[in-house]
Write a structure and sequence with these properties.
Blueprint: E1 2-5, E2 9-21, E3 24-29, H1 52-64, E4 94-101, E5 104-113, E6 118-125, E7 130-133, H2 139-145, H3 149-155, H4 159-169, H5 173-182, H6 185-191
Antiparallel strand pairs: 1-2, 2-3, 2-4, 4-5, 5-6, 6-7
Length: about 200
């Protein structure tokens, strides 16, 4: 997960954490010294009905500072209902994303009180007082993402948004674009979703 901005800035997602979110009782990916690989893109494979779309919503919310609709907050709570899994169905769900903008590492965390229908942000910046309440990322990050829902949807793309965009263009624009960016175009061409002669389908 990385983007080059205006050829002068580089932004990367280094890691994410879930705590009591949907079926994620407690999980951290790319946290600590074990950051996501430096390939420029990362693939996360998560089983159905586990929390993929929820993760995309929470990630966009953390990037933009836009809170989720109040009537949807109940859907983000831990839902396994099995304490032997370690999750607490009564707890407040927490999600955080660790980012690196140029040389500064910072973290944006969101906590959801699904009982009261409230969501809050916390931002950790080592050189700006540590962990503080509110959405307060570096200035350049703020200028790029603050309140920009559609921009965040393009960068953090889930299947539902991709399907809508493909329907609007009447072709698999999103799939083709992702293949180009990830370098998988040649591999996907061999598989050939359209079903050409002499190719594996």
């Amino acid at each position: 997960w990385g983007w080059k901005m205006m050829a002068t800035h580089k932004l990367r997602i280094l890691g994410m954490k879930w705590n009591n979110v949907r079926n994620f009782e407690k999980l951290g990916l790319g946290t600590g010294d074990n950051h996501f690989e430096q390939e420029g893109w990362t693939l996360m494979q998560i089983q159905n009905n586990y929390g993929k779309t929820t993760t995309m919503h929470l990630l966009r919310s953390c990037l933009t500072g836009i809170k989720m609709p109040r009537d949807k907050l109940t859907g983000y709570r831990y839902r396994k209902g099995r304490t032997d899994w370690g999750g607490d169905p009564e707890a407040r769900p927490e999600f955080s994303v660790m980012l690196k903008l140029d040389d500064e590492i910072f973290q944006i965390r969101t906590v959801i009180d699904w009982k009261k229908g409230e969501q809050e942000f916390h931002t950790y910046r080592e050189n700006a007082g540590g962990d503080r309440p509110g959405w307060s990322p570096p200035t350049y990050f703020r200028s790029l993402f603050e309140g920009k829902k559609q921009f965040a949807e393009l960068l953090v793309l889930d299947g539902e948004v991709a399907k809508e965009m493909n329907r609007a263009t009447t072709e698999n624009t999103i799939g083709k674009a992702i293949r180009q960016v990830t370098g998988l175009e040649a591999v996907c061409d061999l598989i050939d979703e359209e079903g050409g002669t002499g190719r594996i389908s």
